[in-house]
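Project channel, design review

CF: Before we commit to the Onchocerca flexuosa constructs, I'd like one complete example in the thread so the newer folks can see what an input/output pair looks like. Taking Probable U2 small nuclear ribonucleoprotein A'.
RD: sounds good, go ahead.
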Amino acid sequence: MQLDQVDGSERDLMEVDPVRHRFPCCIVWTPIPLLTWLFPFVGHMGIATSRGIIYDFSGSFCVSEDDMAFGWPTWYRQVDPNTIDGGMEAWDRAVLDASEEYKGHVHTLFCDNCYCHVALALNKMRYGHKRGYNCFQLASMILFKGRYVGIGGFIKQWFPFTIIILFTLMIIIITKVELINDSLQYLNTVRDRELSLRACKIPVLENLGVTKDQFDTIDLTDNDIKKLENIPSLRRLSTLLMHNNRVQQIMPNIGEVLPSLKTLALTNNNLCELGDIDPLVTCKKLEYLTLIGNPLTHKPQYRLYVIYKLPSVRVLDFKRVRLAERKQADSLFKGKKGQKFRNEVVKKSKVILDDEEDRQSRNLGVEDEAIASASSLAEVERLQAILQSGRIPERDWNHESIGDVTDEFEKNAKESNGFVAEQEDGNDDIPSPANNDVPLPADDDVPSPYRDDVNDDIQSPAANPPQEVKLMINITVHVGIQ
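CF: and here is what came back for Probable U2 small nuclear ribonucleoprotein A':
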């Protein structure tokens, strides 16, 4: 309230005096230990008379007078008596009536508390010529229109909360740093210094700066990373292995922070559109790239677009890029006709915000139902291919005809009481779980450091990703039990 709105005779009476704890015609607020430390906007509220005496509902059948529970106020909101019918007398009468009434109330945390006591007083006096005040209105009134009693009040409210937040962040950072420091660090088979962070359930890339740019290879296989971002400048890093994650976005300046990146393995991730690989244009030294198992590999002209967009790539999906493919890609995507074709074919995935990621996570309930409905090993293989492609199986995914192979396996399963013996007949129609639906490169497609007939200037890309057999084992056991 502005004191110039009050008559001169009342000016002295309306002065707030934090030293003497006098808050005339004020709604006051003080923090509650432990509770306010965790939730800084949750505290204890009271209301003062025109003489500054505080009344607060401090417990069941108890209204404190000039002895506020949990300490003296740190926040206050002074009101204008001119907005009350009857002035200060009406204010005092409403405060006393509400206090007398609440001496017969049982204190509850949510339904009948100190906020309700103050709201009743404001409703009785018709503050602002209206009624209907509630806990939320009082909280917003203090939050947006309140004032601190001084520096001490500000510190009393925010210092414990700040300490808890800083301590929590420090624990998180130390934990992540220890994870990196305690991970395997070794020289791999191609004499590169490698850091292994496999299967650590890492959801977000962060704190890679603690590696101090001392590694040529970082292995982040089998984690839960959704975005390839938050990477510091690592000028030495030449190989990044990201198999079996959920990567769906790549940071636009990845080439600037990883200028020496030569091998990038993104097998079995969730890159959906051709435009999602456009940020890799900044990686001028990128030679080996694998995108097998991503939905974008099923897009038309996928391979030619990647070859056109990333001219430095020599081996794509474990197959050498031929000169004929480069010419075909240039003829398809260059020029005005190529620009028009790119506009029709190339799209980018919608940017997913952090708060949308949980809502768009995979529906495990549908997957569990699909696993339970698999009745043959052929259906198991088909379900595994659907899940690895990043899709959710439909309800009738196993109602389609899957050929004579399914009938044969069902017949064998019935004859052997649900168990099917392994057959070593070299039949490629039924893939082994170890294959993981990832085609192995032919000898003439990918150079290998263990062959003598390749040039020394062509090095091998990253090794094949580790085989993801947990899902296959679970499904196979389920089918065997049935």
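RD: helpful, thanks. The longest strand covers residues 26-31.
CF: DSSP finds 15 helices and 16 strands in the chain.
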